[in-house]
Write a structure and sequence with these properties.
By secondary structure, this protein is α/β, with parallel strands linked by helices. 43% of the residues lie in helices and 11% in strands. Helix 1 packs across helix 8, helix 4 packs parallel to helix 5 and helix 8 runs parallel beside helix 10. The protein starts with a helix and ends in a 14-residue tail after the last strand. The chain binds 5'-deoxyadenosine (5AD) and iron/sulfur cluster. 5'-deoxyadenosine binds next to loops.
Length: 346
Amino acid sequence: MDPRALIDDWLREDDPEKLQELRERADRVRAERVGDEVHLRGLIDFGNLCRRNCLYCGLRAGNRELPRFRMSPEEILDCARAAADFGYGTVVLQAGEDETMSAAWLAEVIRGIKDRFALAVTISVGERPFEDYRKWREAGADRLLLKFETSDPELYARIHPAKPGLPTRIELLKAGREMGYEIGSGVMIGLPGQTYQSLADDLMLFHELDLDMIGSGPFIPNPDTPLGKEALANPPTDPDQVPASSEMTLKVIALTRLLCPQANLPATTALSTLEQGSYLQGLRAGANVIMPQVSPPRFRELYRIYPGAPPLAPEEVFRSVMRDLQAAGRRPGRGPGGRLREKPPA
Ligand code: 5AD
Ligand code: SF4
């Protein structure tokens, strides 16, 4: 059977026993191919300025209610120190598309972290010229994270008002790999207008791009955004519409593990926002990464992509992650936790 049709069938499957089997199969493949360690990536949401207007996201430029911030290099270093103290092997520097942030500024921050701590650095700052990504790589950044959100060109165009002149996300990911980055991406699950066929294509693209990390989470309607408002007022009814549920997210995690057996797959924050405890279920359905927040709550509160519970202090997040790992019978990863490969790349 054509793999795309097979994935499509699985995405539509609703027999609880079969779904349980799928998750167990993914969990076995996870254990065999990447082991029992759960890699911890300290998430530093260092700025919420954004020039884009993605219809689903609370950081969109059009959201004038949100007070904007960017952490100072010293504040970012403090977060990195906290991550290192908790034993996390990686920090993820994440921000909106801030056009007031120069490439040189971020390069200095990356150098500051690499000089002081034995941490892998992932950058997640959106679409920027190739040249900027080259500078950050030279400064020591190890990984780049850029979600393509959906591989359906029409749906993509509908929810991302264009900013011409930038390399597309797929081109950027490919260029990043050439520069020596590990590359990560992912999609939102249950975007209004997302069909099972298009989600099956997303999964095929994960495989085709040979991504090193893949983080997919449910779409959470944000009432301060146009797409969130619309989804709350008129929930989609098309039978081909993918639901934005935790069950669907777990299915996607499991299928991603089967298609990309050695990729690093996080149980995402959006998953645990949707349903308490589903984070743990993610770890049992193929995920092997958790991204605990290390930003102080006063900043984190302003990184309001979608509504959620008030942020916890990094120490509390650490304790809760350790409890989850214990409950799942897994152990925290040691070291940077990079992508494993059966064979070195040709
Ligand atoms: N629901 C779920 N995820 C969202 N993101 C942005 N808005 C939402 C939303 N409403 C995710 C996207 C984006 C990142 C900044 O956050 O995947 O890449
Ligand atoms: Fe900005 Fe990213 Fe949100 Fe789009 S998804 S508005 S680029 S922060």
